[in-house]
Amino acid sequence: MLNILTLGSDVLRKKCATIAVFDKNLENLAVSMIDSMHSNDGIGLAGPQVGVEKRLFVCHVPGEEPRIFINPEIIGTSQDLSPYEEGCLSIPGVYSDIIRPSAITLQAWSLEGKPFKMEAEGILARVIQHEIDHLKGVLFIDHLTEKKRQRILSQYDKRQNKNN
């Protein structure tokens, strides 16, 4: 089981490196990330959240198989925007509506090093955008107004202090 890093960890704010080697180590990491995501009741988990500064994430939205994305890039978005309450395994207990494009086109690579493109909408598009943000050092709270972000972070800090 991989340790999921939480808010305040420096690696969560770093831009990740492109993956060039597609080997058994990468596969083992991806499988461990899926296990860790499931164990923490998540639907997405990016490399930086487990201390790996590489461009990969995993996700498992309801009704679909788990997916692995390596070196993902969003190459198109819908003009339609939609709000949705997001949370993050790295900021436990914090949720807020975030407005994002409701559909995307994505380019990424498989574990075998094969490029692919796909279109996604709904919750899958949302998770992909959230996880790609992680690969850029961006957290979902960065999409909030400064006032709302500070209020949420204050509540998070109080909850963390109460649990320690």
Gist of the model:
This protein is of the alpha+beta class and 164 residues long.
Low-confidence regions = none
Radius of gyration: 15 Å
Number of helices: 3
- The dominant shape is globular
Elements, N to C (H/E): HEEEEEEEHH
- Strand tally, please? 7
> In the CATH classification, which architecture applies?
Alpha-Beta Complex
Question: Which whole number gives the mean pLDDT?
Answer: 96
Q: DSSP strand (E) fraction?
A: 25-35%
Distance between the termini: 22 Å
Biggest pleated sheet: 5 strands, antiparallel
Stated plainly, the CATH topology is called Peptide Deformylase
Query: Biggest sheet: strands side by side, in what order?
Result: 1-2-3-6-7
Say what oligomer this is: single chain
**CATH hierarchy, class:** Alpha Beta
Number of domains: 1
